[in-house]
Amino acid sequence: MKHHGAGALREPYTRSVGTHIDTELVRIDPVHPDPGLIARAADYIRRGLLVAFPTETVYGLGADALSEAAVDRIFVAKGRDPSDPLIVHIGDLAGIERVAIDVPEAARGLVEAFWPGALTLVLERAEGVAPAVSAGRTTVAVRMPSHPVARQLIEAAGVPVAAPSANRFMRTSATTAQHVVEDLDGRVELILDGGPASAGIESTVIDATGPALRLLRPGAVTIEEIRRRVGVKVLVDSQHSGASPGMLARHYAPSTRLRLVGGDEQALAGAVEEETWQGHRVGVLCTDGEAAAFDRKVVVERLGTELEEVARDLYAAIRRLDAAGLDVIVVRDYGEEGLGRAIHDRLRRAATPLA
Ligand code: TXA
Ligand code: MG
């Protein structure tokens, strides 16, 4: 891999071994991105190459959404099942015309309230979008991110950008450029390092193609917030609220066994004690307040106090614990209110054993 500071674009840092793409890692200012660097990354997109970039939710693995060949490369790089469709990112509202046929009345309030931001809408697909994006469906998932690097990259590219989360299949989404490097070094042309993602959990996916809005994936925008700001009800029709294609029972999973504990702090402490008694090396993910209950034999990852903080650091903490040589990671369920719903969804999947 080549690693560059924003000022030294041509200085190689390291070179990866045994991989076929020479991945470049470049630092970029997340608030005022260097226009020259944005132009170069946009040129990569237009040439059908793969560019990983920061968004406000998680890092995305981007390619030209109008090019079937470019989109195919995303599936190869991630090891993603071609039946799992991708989200197309637009830079401004006008960009929607090239992606979707129209925004139905029911979804307009959502667009006004939450774009740019962490909300993805499933709409009827426009002609020009590469069919691979939608994995054979007539619909397309669309989002306008708010992160300046993402917005400016898409606008400079002049094409909509298909981008799933920038992780390998079955891994937790990448919330830092270092996570992207771990998963995709040697598989993508360019990684823009804009620092850690602020939300840390993926966008909320809502199907707006039917008569009612339906939640397909809980995410950074809560259904309570949608109700409060737009006054519409979003149907949560499957009991697991994971109706998106590709939302496998096991997903976002560390290779270490993850034990999800229902109940309060005492239940968490009890589960940790039980695992320790069995001779297991135990890691625990918990809030700051819960951390005092554990002794030094247990590896503790503190996630802050608010659900926003838990969401922001969850994937990074899971990756750290997964690399710590443990037998089990124990985590408490924080319920399904507000952001808890998305956190619960990801933890439940991560705790599902391999079939
Ligand atoms: O926050 C995010 O959404 C990040 C950033 C990079 O934007 N992207 C992301 O993409 O999480 P990905 O590919 O990891 O997840 C996309 C989700 C999947 O659950 C997929 O099944 C669903 O969106 N999806 C995509 N197109 C769809 C469609 N046409 N109909 C229903 N669900 C769709
Ligand atoms: Mg993903």
Strand arrangement, largest sheet? 1-2-9-3-4-8-5-7-6-10-11
Bound molecules: threonylcarbamoyladenylate, magnesium ion
- β-strand amount: 15-25%
Approximate shape: globular
The count of DSSP E runs of length 2 or more, i.e. the number of strands, is 15
Give the termini separation.
35 Å
CATH architectural group of the largest domain: Alpha-Beta Complex
Instruction: From the alpha carbons, calculate the radius of gyration and give it in angstroms.
Output: 20 Å
Uncertain stretches: 6-18
Q: What report would you give on this structure?
A:
This protein has 355 residues and is α/β, with parallel strands linked by helices. It folds into 2 domains: 13-243, DHBP synthase; 257-351, 3-Layer(aba) Sandwich (Rossmann fold), CATH 3.40.50.11030. The chain contains 11 helices and 15 strands. It has helices at 35-46, 68-78, 105-114, 131-134, 148-157, 177-184, 223-230, 265-277, 288-291, 307-322, 340-350; strands at 2-4, 24-27, 51-53, 60-64, 87-89, 119-124, 139-143, 161-162, 190-193, 204-207, 214-217, 257-261, 282-286, 299-302, 328-332. The protein has an 11-stranded mixed beta sheet with strand order 1-2-9-3-4-8-5-7-6-10-11, sandwiched between helices. Strands 12-15-13-14 form a 4-stranded parallel beta sheet, sandwiched between helices. 49% of the residues are buried. The protein binds threonylcarbamoyladenylate and magnesium ion. Threonylcarbamoyladenylate binds next to β6, β7 and β11.
Kindly list the characteristics that best describe this protein.
355 residues, alpha/beta, DHBP synthase, Rossmann fold, 11-stranded mixed beta sheet, 4-stranded parallel beta sheet, 11 helices, 15 strands, globular, binds threonylcarbamoyladenylate, binds magnesium ion
